[in-house]
Amino acid sequence: MTVDRAALEQALEFIRPRLRGHAGDMDVQVDDEQGVVEVTFWGACESCPAMAVTYAGLVSTTLEKVPGVTLVRAEQVHASPRALLGIRRRLGMAS
Amino acid sequence: MKDGMFIFDCVVHTQDFTDRQIAPGTDGKNVVAHRTNQQEFNKLMASKGGPADKPDFYDPVDPDWARAQLFERSDTDIAMVQTVPLFGPWKDSLGPAQLCYDLTQRDPERLIFCGGVDPSWQGLEFALDEMERQVVEWGARSFKFYGYQDRDHHWRADDPELAYPLYEKALELGIKMVQFHKGYPLGMHPVEAFKPNDLQMAAYDFPDLNFGIHHMGDPYVDETISIAGRFPNIHLMLPLWFNQYFLQPYPMLHRIGQALLMVGPDRLAYGSEGFIWPDVQAYITMWANLEMPDELQDKYGYPELTREIKEKIFGLNFANALGYEIPEQYRGGERS
User: In this structure, is residue B250 part of a structural domain?
Assistant: First the structure.
């Protein structure tokens, strides 16, 4: 199953205004075959101390819902998977 | 190598802390105070389980002993011998360039020379000429700067007149990285002269040059980590973190955790500050075996200390920042 491009665009339209409101932005590289979405943050997001929260609490959770997406990654996020799960739990997005 | 990981010690010194170094016409207070403070701190560290101190630390090290200490009695593969261009109260600077160069000649393939000049003390023209001489004649691969000599001689890293010509000269000479002492003053100098803040615009204006900050800018650690997080050509040299861990393990775990979280694992570099504490292997063993406690991962979001992170910090990052090609015999871990 390839990534649903229309749904992906919708997800990005949902995410981007929130980032741009803080002078940030993001871009994605999509591997259709594997369903992997690689996120790159720009602008103020690039060095924001809250990047992990933005990623776990908004970006990855939104992108993961796009049909065909199997994995979301962001090399700039240095928090451990354990910390990212902790963020999701505290935001009520994971049990 | 340690368990297949390449070890590049970003800073060892040969220094002269003796009264021979009291500059003519000065009262010598800075030299004596620095020696005394350092001696007491060394003893304190040793009493807390850290590496044993070296009672004669104030004399320049014997090159044969230093070489053996690094390459026979520790897993170090390559080390950078750094000048300390603090002239003010010191007759021949705290870490004289000639002494450092002489030490590198004991094993030139494995001991890399880091030069040092000061434009406020030596004059800009002399400093630029000396940079060229240290690269051409002595093979300097980087430069160390210390921004405060005395009340009348100090400079900012973002000064277009005094500092920028140094960076232009470094680039012209093929240097990829310059390094700054930040934080903890080596003598009775005002600590605010060593805030890392002046590196921001310098790093922005010279994107092709890497800037290393030593000692995490302590006590300006938060500012240092934040600045390094924002400027991709700023690197954190971790001596002091390694030295202080034995005394304050939890504060140091917070610092490394915070740096890894905000800066990432690619711009942090291991260094021992040898040979004030001569047992270099103690640092290597500690870092190779260190774990980030679960509690700190859960409560503070710090990453796990993986082998990949340890290997980068042990040597790959510093080599990359310097543009140093790692010799084939030390590439085992990198490939695995």
Answer: yes
Q: How many angstroms separate the CA atoms of B6 and B320, rounded?
A: 12
Q: ipTM value of the model?
A: 0.74
Closest-CA distance, A53 to chain B, in angstroms, reads: 10
Tens digits of residue pLDDT in B57-76: 788 889 999 999 999 999 99
Q: Which residues of B touch A86 (CB under 8 A)?
A: 298, 301
Q: How many domains does chain A have?
A: 1
CB contact under 8 A, B229 and A76: no
Candidates B297, B306, B317: best to mutate against A (most CBs of A within 10 A) is B297
Packed helices B221-230 and B249-262: angle between N→C axes, nearest 10 degrees: 20
Distance from chain centroid for Cα B148: 17
Residue A95 forms part of a structural domain: no
Could you tell me the CA-to-CA distances from B152 to B97, B106, B121, B128, B189 in Å, in that order? Answer: 23, 37, 9, 20, 12
Chain A residues in contact with B226 (beta carbon < 8 A): 49
Locus of tokens 């950078």: B80
